[in-house]
Amino acid sequence: MVAEKAWAKLLGSYANSESGWNAWVLRYLTDDPVQVIRFDTFNNNPNTVAGKKMWQRLLHWSEREYLIFSSTNDKSFVKFHTYTVLSAKEAYINGKKVRLLLMRNPWGKVKWKGAWSEGSKQYKALEAQMDVEIGREGGKFLMSYEDFLKHMVDVTMSYSQESRTGEAERPEFHPQLSL
What we know:
Layout: H1 2-11, H2 14-17, H3 22-30, E1 34-38, H4 49-63, E2 67-71, E3 82-93, E4 96-104, H5 121-129, E5 140-144, H6 145-151, E6 154-158
Antiparallel strand pairs: 1-6, 2-3, 2-6, 3-4, 4-5
């Protein structure tokens, strides 16, 4: 949200910042290397080698608290919109391993209404097993990794020169990754 406001200020208005590319914003505002991965490079399939590798990257990036964004296209539940990926976690619910992403809509509204959304049977099972109140904070929601790949088109991540966890990682700049 702060990055969005800073970018709009830099460009002169929110109208001037419409339809920008997340990588531009992250690279310009942080001066850190940015990586963009399009999900169509592995057919949005979580079970391919590349799809499994993508999940491992999301877990790693989440653990290091890197800035992660994901975008939709014209076929998604909100057209041409960017969401923040707050964290990626694996959990066992009723004995079954699930891969979940905690997402945030910077608008603070228009939440995901599918599986794992607030009020869904999956969410209720999670609430019963853990102390979870995700849906009560503006714009936050859970989404399975499988749904994430179906409804999002890419992920953009900024390699902070030093993550908030204190571990430095200085890779070369790679605007596109082939999985």
